[in-house]
Specification:
Largest sheet of chain B: 2 strands, antiparallel
Distance between the termini of chain A: 96 Å
Structural class of chain B: mainly alpha
Number of helices of chain B: 9
Distance between the termini of chain B: 26 Å
Order of helices and strands of chain B: HHHHHHHEEHH
Helix content of chain B: 55-70%
Mean pLDDT of chain A: 85
Radius of gyration of chain B: 18 Å
Number of strands of chain B: 2
Radius of gyration of chain A: 25 Å
Oligomer: heterodimer
Strand content of chain A: 15-25%
Order of helices and strands of chain A: HHHEHEEEEHEEEEH
Mean pLDDT of chain B: 88
Low-confidence stretches of chain B: none
Largest sheet of chain A: 5 strands, antiparallel
Number of strands of chain A: 9
Largest interface: A-B, 26 and 27 residues
Structural class of chain A: alpha+beta
Shape of chain B: globular
Strand order of the largest sheet of chain A: 1-2-3-4-5
Helix content of chain A: 40-55%
Shape of chain A: elongated
Chain lengths: 222, 197
């Protein structure tokens, strides 16, 4: 008698089924991923470079005699013209130098530290002697949305602009004041209500990283 | 059941959140801003509709022993597609939603609809069921995020509603408010429409 079991009832079918299904979907995903990869990378680089530009836009604009906003709209050209990536060994981390007419005017460092929930990364612009901050932007963090997550907001990061951060190579100790306080001393910083640890973590990250950079530089100079 | 009934049933009568109590995790996580909720809801709807379609088409050939593996695989593939598309075309939203898009895969609504409906019904009905369940879920997210964003930030979809006199309620931004609101919503709906006589 002939065996009438259909192919779909054979034990090999489930194995084949999963194999075929996996191949189809993995294939589709691989194609999609490859196709969108350059686009995603380009966007990420663009955001990153625009951030660097925004940090030093004011310092640059005052030398050029134009407006800071004009630099932003002129993005790909203005970045190439004034900002360049430095060698890894000059500061032992990712760093950019800002030049105007061959005169060095600022550094931008890519720094990292620990937040409340995970690591965070920020871009910090400093004067050439590393003593004063020109700007700060936290570009990657995993803090609580709406609380610690507000370290990305402008009112928080803009208060770092023009702050003295180091005395020689030792970090300055800041007093944290409430978020809404209008008047603020040079050694005070406003912290986010409901996010004390995260606020502190940002300040510590910037201070510690810059102190380390300054120390390694002074050792090299000796 | 007609197609209209299928839709009404999966979107309202058997709503995934307030009736089946599924997808609670993401309802709590992404509802602090209306924009995030909307994108998340549409992402789920999209992934769910397509997974339902695929699972329904291959239902005759799917061996019972590996049906769960197949469903998870199909779901994961569509969710990753949503993730890639968000990264490529809406990078800001993608950054805000963070890991939650990837977590659509573990959203029980998807598995539930695939196993309960799509694996037994024809493709078109399954798609309608999927869209219904997805939109029902989106609706709940929007209701919760409406309250949370309005009181937590004084904005709706990022537009200022309350003036500078408004003091933001931090509790609305944090997780506890989501628990309260979701519980209130479930209690209200069940009390009003599903009363056991």
């Amino acid at each position: 008698m002939e065996n009438k079991t259909s192919f779909f009832d054979k034990p090999v079918w489930p194995v084949l089924f999963v194999l075929i299904l996996s191949l189809i979907f993995v294939g589709i995903l691989a194609v999609m991923y490859r196709a969108s990869e350059p686009r995603i990378e380009r966007q990420q680089r663009e955001v990153y470079e625009k951030t660097i530009l925004s940090l030093v836009a004011d310092s640059l604009a005052s030398r050029i005699g134009g407006e800071a906003a004009a630099l932003q709209t002129d993005y790909p050209n203005s970045f190439k013209q004034y900002i360049s990536l430095m060698d890894e060994d000059s500061f032992a981390r990712k760093a950019y130098e800002v030049r105007f007419n061959d005169e060095l005017i600022a550094y931008v460092f890519d720094v990292g530290g620990k937040g409340l929930w995970g690591t965070m990364r920020a871009l910090v612009a400093t004067s050439l002697d590393l003593q004063t901050l020109l700007g700060l932007n936290v570009y990657s963090q995993s803090e609580t949305p709406g609380l610690g997550g507000r370290i990305e907001e402008d009112w928080f990061t803009s208060q770092f602009k023009g702050k003295p951060i180091l005395e020689k190579t030792s970090p300055i100790v800041f007093v944290m004041v409430p978020e809404g306080q209008e008047k603020i001393e040079p050694k005070e910083l406003r912290q986010i209500t409901g996010a004390t640890i995260t606020s502190r973590a940002v300040v510590d990250m910037v201070r510690d990283e810059l102190a380390e950079i300054a120390k390694s530089r002074s050792q090299e100079a000796k | 059941m007609t197609r209209k009934e299928i839709f009404i049933n999966s979107a309202f009568t058997d709503n995934a959140v307030w009736k089946q109590i599924l997808g609670i995790c993401s309802s709590l996580a992404v509802t602090n801003l209306m924009m995030n909720s909307l994108i998340m809801g549409l992402g789920v709807t999209f992934a769910l509709a397509l997974s339902c379609l695929t699972v329904s088409i291959i239902r005759e050939y799917t061996p019972r022993s590996v049906r769960m593996i197949a469903q998870t695989l199909i779901m994961a593939a569509y969710v990753i597609m949503v993730d890639i598309m968000l990264k490529a075309f809406l990078p800001d939203v993608s950054k805000q939603l963070g890991p939650y898009v990837g977590l659509i895969i573990t959203n029980c609504i998807l598995m539930g609809r695939l196993e309960a409906f799509a694996s037994k019904n024809p493709p078109l009905d399954s798609v309608i069921d999927g869209i219904g369940a997805g939109l029902g879920y989106t609706m709940v997210l929007l209701v919760i995020s409406f309250v949370r964003e309005l009181f937590g930030f004084g904005t709706l979809f990022g537009f200022k509603i309350f003036g500078s006199w408004w003091t933001n309620w931090s509790i609305m931004v944090m997780a506890p408010s989501a628990f309260f609101l979701l519980a209130l919503l479930i209690w209200f709906v069940n009390n009003k429409y599903y009363k056991v006589v």
